[in-house]
From TrEMBL, chain A:
SUPFAM superfamilies attached to this UniProt entry: ATPase domain of HSP90 chaperone/DNA topoisomerase II/histidine kinase (SSF55874)
Presence of the UniProt keyword Transferase in the record: yes
Catalytic activity line of the entry: ATP + protein L-histidine = ADP + protein N-phospho-L-histidine
Residue stretches of biased makeup (Low complexity): 308-321
Sequence segments annotated as region (Disordered): 301-425
Name of protein: histidine kinase
Pfam families: HATPase_c (PF02518)
Molecular function terms, GO-annotated: protein histidine kinase activity
From TrEMBL, chain B:
Species, as recorded: Saccharothrix syringae (Nocardiopsis syringae)
The organism's place on the tree of life at top rank: Bacteria
Name listed for the protein in its UniProt record: DUF742 domain-containing protein
Length: 425, 111
């Protein structure tokens, strides 16, 4: 697996985004072969991405040679790139939403694993498109309104790198990042994590952690155990990280670094590299206190789905706008997709739509006892079936009866479970 | 609407195959609840751990929490490997007993 990942990485370096795209197309074709809707979507995505790649080629050399005279032309190119990247993001977002639904319904581990690979490729495509927008001087995407917990900011960053299984999440302070910066901090971390995994042995872990400083800021650390960088190289990189971000010749080679500089500058975040004992590199990110918030209580409990009759219609009506104006439209126009009332949970997970076993009008009642206030945030109260909830009770009772019936049928007593928990009724 | 940024594969490190047999009707419970251990879990595992303090089935967990079933299975299996969650032996031997499986199917149809 690791060697396969390595070879994919090499391949990606050699051939760039096009090989990623081809790989994606092959995987996609295999899985989506007989699912017409998703397939059409994929082809649409491919066309736009190809288009993007075509337009991208002239862009890359553009900032390098003519610094003075060609300024308006550069602006235009940047605007064009940003616009195309935005359209790309819309498509990739629809693709990801589609994949989420398929993943939620998939029961077969092998098929799910293939869907995960597709998801991973699509997530990396999204990262490319977002980086393109950052480099073109635009917002990468519509900022979230609610704060995101540090754990989720970090895991979102991990989601977008190639070698994500190698990253260990260490100790993370139970705090949150303010909504308008959360995704940008994830993007910045993604580039640091990607660099750390690429520059260290393929089987060594990369650790990311987050601590609160006395000043109320947050210090994020990305540590790898590669061979490390010579002191003068670290100094040079730190110099370039602390100076005004601008595109130059080295931006082509170190695109990640350029993205980090832009995003750090935008949010007043300090980023620096250091050598790590005994070997390896530590990338540190200091988030100023005004980006830090108290963490919202962790709640993954499914809320009863409200009826949404109107939104779907408006979304469909607005689904075919003309070309989105690349300069000022930061909110991505809604794309046509099957109605999904779910949305996103506080934990960043897709909210599933399939019907609950519980009757729709009966919400899950958290246990009223105040046991849920220890430790990390506010863990959900222990589960308890509402006595009035006849459906749930029936189901649970059925299961127990079923269990008893099975024992009788087999004429054997299965292993006794360990002592029931005190909170067991 | 944005797609979620924490992807399901990142929660399970890409794993889709649980090490334990976890059918939808399999019951799980927490033998010795430890609030400190709970606090150190990732949000999804923590939610499962807290819910399973009351003996519950995989289907119930999936219905009550906003976590895809494929992720729930892998995380429960991880918790079971650390002895944090007990997987009740219901159905443990089903896979070798076709007759029993058929009887269960009949029974379920009758429910």
């Amino acid at each position: 697996m690791v060697s396969r990942v390595r070879s994919l990485l090499d391949q990606y370096r050699r051939q760039g985004a096009r090989s990623l795209l081809d790989q994606y197309r092959r995987q996609g074709a295999r899985v989506l072969l007989d699912r017409q809707g998703a397939r059409a979507l994929l082809e649409q995505a491919r066309d736009t991405i190809l288009e993007l790649l075509e337009t991208r080629r002239p862009r890359t050399p553009a900032p390098t040679p003519a610094p003075t005279a060609a300024a308006p032309r550069e602006d235009l190119l940047a605007a064009v790139c940003a616009g195309i990247a935005l359209r790309d993001l819309n498509l990739v977002d629809s693709l990801l939403a589609e994949l989420e639904q398929m993943e939620a319904q998939e029961q077969d581990p092998d098929a799910l694993s293939r869907l995960y690979r597709l998801d991973h490729l699509a997530t990396r495509l999204r990262r490319n498109a977002e980086n393109l927008r950052v480099l073109a001087g635009e917002e990468a995407g519509a900022a979230a309104e609610e704060t995101a917990s540090l754990v989720d900011v970090i895991r979102a960053a991990i989601s977008a790198i190639e070698q994500y299984p190698r990253v260990d999440v260490g100790r993370v302070a139970p705090l949150a990042v303010v909504g308008f910066a959360a995704d940008d901090i994830s993007r910045l971390l993604t580039e640091l994590l990607d660099n750390a995994t690429a520059q260290s042995p393929p089987n060594s872990p990369v650790t990311v952690s987050a601590h609160v400083t006395e000043a109320g800021s947050i210090l994020l650390r990305v540590e790898d155990s590669g061979i490390g960088l010579p002191a003068e190289r670290v100094a040079a990189l730190n110099d370039s990280l602390s100076t005004e971000p601008s595109l130059d010749g080295s931006s082509i080679e170190h695109m990640g670094l350029a993205v980090v500089r832009r995003l750090a500058d935008k949010h007043g975040v300090r980023v620096w590299l250091g050598r790590r004992a005994p070997h390896g590199t530590t990338a540190s990110v200091l988030l100023p206190p005004d980006l830090v918030r108290e963490a919202a209580p962790v709640s993954l409990v499914r809320q009863p789905e409200p009826a949404e009759p109107a939104t779907t219609a408006t979304a469909t009506a607005a689904a075919t706008p003309g070309m989105p104006s690349p300069r000022h439209s930061l909110t991505r126009p809604p794309v046509h997709r099957p109605p999904r009332e779910g949305g996103v949970t506080a934990g960043g997970l897709p909210r599933r739509v399939p019907a609950s076993l519980r009757p729709a009008d009966v919400p899950a009642t958290p246990r009223p006892r105040g046991t849920g206030d220890e430790g990390f945030g506010d863990p959900p109260a222990p589960f308890r079936l509402d006595p009035d909830d006849a459906g749930g009770d029936d189901f649970f009772g059925d299961l127990l009866d079923f269990d008893a019936g099975e024992r009788a049928a087999r004429g054997t007593l299965p292993d006794e479970p360990p002592e029931d928990h005190p909170s067991d009724d | 609407m944005r797609s979620t940024r924490v992807r399901p594969y990142a929660i399970t490190r890409g794993r889709t195959r649980p090490r334990h047999l976890l059918l939808v009707e399999t019951l799980v419970s927490v033998p010795n609840y430890d609030p400190q251990a709970s606090a150190q879990l990732m949000p999804e595992a923590q939610a499962l751990y807290e819910r399973a303090r009351q003996r519950t089935s995989v289907a119930e967990l999936s219905a009550a929490l906003d976590i895809p079933l494929g992720v729930i299975r892998v995380l429960l299996s991880d918790l079971a490997s650390q002895d944090m969650v007990y997987i009740h032996p219901t159905g443990h031997e089903y896979q070798y007993d076709l007759q029993l499986l058929e009887r269960i199917l009949d029974g379920l149809k009758g429910v």
